[in-house]
Design a protein that fits this description.
The chain is an all-alpha fold and about 80 residues long. It has one domain (about 5-70). The chain is built from four helices and no strands. Helix 1 (about 5-25) runs parallel beside helix 3 and helix 2 runs antiparallel to helix 3 (about 60-70). The longest helix has 24 residues, at about 5-25.
Length: about 80
């Protein structure tokens, strides 16, 4: 099991119930908007690491994993890679 899988799974396990309760309280549209913003942030990090691997550390990929986990993305890799499935 990779560290990325642990990061995504741990964050998603915690945030799943939090986002469910939050959507009941503030509305689903706001939660979906925040989720989409997290997706965009994750994709930007992935693109920056892919475009400039010499100047950015691979550790930035863990930031993308954490953002995907916080938005309850349950795939073992960031969403850009799982979109091809």
């Amino acid at each position: 099991m990779s560290l990325g899988t642990l990061i995504v799974g741990g964050c998603a396990a915690v945030m799943g119930t939090v986002l469910a309760k939050l959507s009941d309280r503030v509305g689903r549209v706001k939660v979906i908007t925040a989720n989409t913003t997290g997706l965009i942030l994750s994709e930007i990090v992935l693109l920056l690491v892919a475009m400039a691997p010499a100047s950015l550390s691979y550790r930035w990929l863990y930031v993308a994993y954490a953002v995907d986990g916080l938005r309850c993305e349950l795939s073992p890799e960031p969403s850009l890679w799982s979109a091809a499935d």
